[in-house]
Structures are given as structure tokens and as C-alpha cells.
Amino acid sequence: MSELRSCCGFRCDLCPAYRENVTGPEHQRRIAEGWRTLYDIKGVGPDDVYCDGCRDMRPEARRVDVRCKVRPCVLGRGLAHCGQCPDYPCATMKHLPQTRGQVEQWTGRALSDQEYRLFVHPYESTPFLAAERTRKGSSPNS
Asked: Which DSSP helix (H) or strand (E) runs through 107?
């Protein structure tokens, strides 16, 4: 799968909840447990670890974060992602980008390479969004 970005710049192609990456109930249980442990995300169970992506406009499309405020903002502005927004960074999305160092600081422990790969790397959107912000010729349809 080629690189696929969400409205907030997350890497859907790397996200363990993206439909192409979900391999079954054990995978979903492990991901829900990892999110709960590392990010203190409550209320997301194994059955919720499945996402069609924020670009899927079908009414029946499934998303992990059904209350996401970034998606309606980006789509409502006709943008591909937050990096194209003149208001970036803003309060709506500033809590989203994570780094390995931040997660290790929150948890008080070093992450294994597998934890980083599954639970942090797909969501490190700040470098991408910053690069897109400064890229010449950036337009809503890029």
C-alpha cells in the first residue's frame, strides 16, 4: 500500500486500525490494549479497532474516532489535510501529533521498537504537516 494520509496527517497506511492492516480479533485486542496502555484511551474496545479512513465518504464507513473534530474542519474547508490550512497549527488539532519521546515521557518508560512502530510512528504527523505548510504551490487539491 502506498502512503495514505488522513485529514490530520496521520499515516493510514501504517495505522494498525486501518482496514487494510486489521488481521483479526487478536490483532484488534492487542491494538486496543496498546492504545489504552500508552495513551489512556478508554472506551475503545477490540471491535472498535477498525477504520475505513476519514476520506471514505460512505454513510456506513467506520472510524475509530467518531468524534474527531479535525475531519469535519478539513473537509468543510475543502482541504486535503491540516498542513494546507492557513490556521495551522490550531487548537483543534494541536493535541494530535505525538513523538516517541512524548509517549515515553507520559508512560515513564522506553518503548520497544514494536510499540513505536504500532502505536507512535503512524501518528507522527507534525513533520509532514510542517513540510506541507512550507511547500510552494500547496493548494487544497494537492
From this structure: helix 100-107
User: Are the C-beta atoms of residues 116 and 100 closer than 8 Å to each other?
Assistant: yes
For 76, half-sphere exposure in the C-beta direction (CA atoms, 13 angstrom radius) is 5
The sign of the torsion formed by the CA atoms of 1, 98, 34, 80 equals negative
Under 8 Å CB-to-CB from 108, ≥6 apart: which residues?
Answer: none
Instruction: Tell me the domain boundaries of the chain.
Output: 25-134
User: Which residues neighbour 51 within 8 Å (Cβ) at sequence distance 6 or greater?
Assistant: 12, 15, 17, 18, 19, 62, 63, 64
The predicted-structure confidence for 96-141, as pLDDT tens digits, reads as follows 767 899 889 988 999 999 999 999 999 999 889 989 888 744 444 4
- What burial class does residue 47 get, using C-beta atoms within 10 Å of its C-beta: 0-12 exposed, 13-18 middle, 19+ buried? exposed
CB 92 within 8 A of CB 129: no
